[in-house]
Design goal:
5 helices; single chain; mainly alpha; globular
Length: 142
């Protein structure tokens, strides 16, 4: 199985504990990248990649902030090596963004009317016909 890409800098103590999970997610990422995308829209072919990217970042976030199972050095190493997305984790630390699936959901430039993604709207505020037409835009609902 291929290793998670790293620099020549040796990883900090505790790397052995998280390396198998990261290698498994990296293998899933490679499979998602090589998966055929004929018959899919461009957005649909990217959903599995965004989903796995979210899983890796959430795994590191949970280990450091919720379970306190890894050291600050190991957490910083994962951010420096781009194993986890520092910008996404920064948003998760803010109130109201705890369940954000990706940074594309809060970028208004990618939408038709400069609004947020459908996953940012509370489900109680949505009508049934609205969810059917726009739900495929977000990886959370895919």
């Amino acid at each position: 199985m291929p290793k998670v890409r790293r620099s020549r800098k040796p990883p900090p103590e505790g790397w052995e504990l998280i390396e198998p999970t990261l290698e498994e997610l990296e293998q899933k990422m490679r499979e998602a990248e090589t998966e055929p995308h004929e018959g899919k829209r461009k957005q649909e072919s990217l959903w599995p990649i965004f989903k796995i990217h979210h899983q890796k970042s959430r795994y590191i976030y949970d280990l450091f902030y919720r379970r306190k199972a890894i050291s600050r050095e190991l957490y910083q190493y994962c951010l420096d090596e781009k194993i986890a997305d520092a910008n996404l984790i920064a948003k998760w630390k803010k109130t109201g963004y705890e369940n954000l699936c990706c940074l594309r959901c809060i970028q208004t430039r990618d939408t038709n009317f400069a609004t947020n993604c459908i996953c940012r709207v509370p489900k109680s505020k949505l009508e049934e016909d609205e969810t059917e037409s726009v739900i495929k835009l977000c990886i959370k609902y895919a």
